[in-house]
Fold this protein.
Amino acid sequence: MNAPDPVFAPVLETPAAVRLSDWGVIRARGEDAATFLHGQLTQDTQSLPVGAARLAGYCSPKGRLLATFVLWRAAPDEILLACSADLLAPTLKRLSMFVLRAKCKLTDATGELALWGIAAPVSGIPGAVPGIEVPALPFEMRAGAGGTAIRLNDAAGCARVLWATPADAAAPALPACPKPVWDWLEVQSAVPRIVARTAEAFVPQMVNLELVGGVHFQKGCYPGQEIVARSQYRGTVKRRLYLVEGEAAAEPGVEVWAADDASQPAGVVVLAASIGQGGVARHAALVEAKRALAETGELRLGAADGPPLRRRPLPYELPSEAA
């Protein structure tokens, strides 16, 4: 595979906002909400203070991710979980099956809350968004009269903010951010988001979820916890998430192949985005793949003779894996 080279970054000269219609929100409310979620998710929600946000995953008993969340504690008895809209209904249904006698009510809050993505050059972010206090660090949160701002991971020189407001609130007083630009930045952040096409495909470490703070290894049990812990401490993670660019548009769930092996796929696309700038179309993706093939071989999209994929630098380091 080609050696990494600088990442193409879309130009955003001023802050801009886009409605995230492909996201939804689950509300967990009740005096046992934090305790219940603590026993279901990869994140420690029991000690999560009010006004704090985290990444989290929801796994099957086999340790495979059913969904990923940006979650935040809005009140002592309320936690909100933002996830891919196409996974909200099945995730809500499955979680609800395990509430039993816990004092926790789970509901779809998508119709009550509007989620916006705000992107801006990192150098110009302090005080640049009218009426919104932008947190300084990833997954810091600021709640105000107008809504809740959660700083996401920066990407390609841009700061990203998840802005949650009442559904009937006015849109942010910002220019429109084209959705492909936001999607491109999400891919460049190398933070995985599970969608319907990739549900139950990955153990958290296979998509680097623990490297971006989405897995808490000192908390109690949750579905799939034993498998996730074994993968972490026995060095059995032979697959990882990589950032690539290619000559053709990709979609989540599309298989990735090694150029010299047509017998079986080497991985799968997790997220993808395409953008045009200066008359040039660019295609990027996050792909989960076998480390040996991704780091020393050549990956192709869709088939062993498909369009080549060029590896790009991740914004964080991958750990070495035990043999």
Remarks:
- The radius of gyration is 19 Å.
- Residues 16-189 form a domain with the Gyrase A; domain 2 fold (CATH 3.30.1360.120).
